[in-house]
Amino acid sequence: MANTSEIRNGLCIEFKNDIYSVVEFLHVKPGKGPAFVRTKLKSLTNGKIIDNTFPSSHKIDVVRVERRKYQFLYKDDQGFNFMETETYEQVSIDEKMIEQPKLLKEGMMIEILFHAENETPLTIDLPQYVTYEITYTEPGLRGDTATNVTKPATIETGAEIRVPIFINEGDKIKVDTRSASYVERVK
Fold it and tell me: Which helix (H) or strand (E) holds 134?
């Protein structure tokens, strides 16, 4: 048990029979009345974000979690298979636990957040930026650069993203995995 003065971003707590991660928090001390902590909590089981206000010195249940580095191996009927690089232990994870499953490529290093007490995986964090090769895109039209024009492109994992018209097949691009959006061309 801890109290609200220990709330910080990234802290995992048990709240309403679910495990939440603190996304944002703000300690508020109004001129009149008691202090409180306003928070945004993200559910680690379904991804929903809720707002909640805790009274000052309210007791919260902190959940001990561990982040471990894993390497993506392959996808099969049971789900996505990952291997811990130190012990070579493999774990299979369901597709709905991954925010952007189409952006996973073989050999990619990711972080899995585990509940430390019962060893269950909670979330999977892809690196923020990943480099991919364009496998298919339509050629851009010459002279069509007056506005921010984009076109669909297929990357090596099979995912489709929007890219500027000057990107061609075989180009390498950097993609933001949080929004599955184009960032820049890589040389």
Answer: strand 129-137
pLDDT, one tens digit per residue, over 34-56 is: 999 999 999 887 778 999 999 98
Q: Which residue has the tokens 């300690």?
A: 27
What are phi and psi for residue 139, nearest 5 degrees?
A: -70, 145
Average pLDDT, integer, range 112-119: 87
For 117-141, write each residue's pLDDT tens digit.
888 888 888 899 999 999 999 887 6
Query: Are residues 54 and 5 in contact, defined by beta-carbon separation less than 8 angstroms?
Result: no
CATH architecture of 2-62: Roll (2.30)
Is CATH 2.40.50.140 the right assignment for the domain spanning 129-186? yes
Q: How many Å apart are CA 139 and CA 121, to the nearest integer?
A: 42
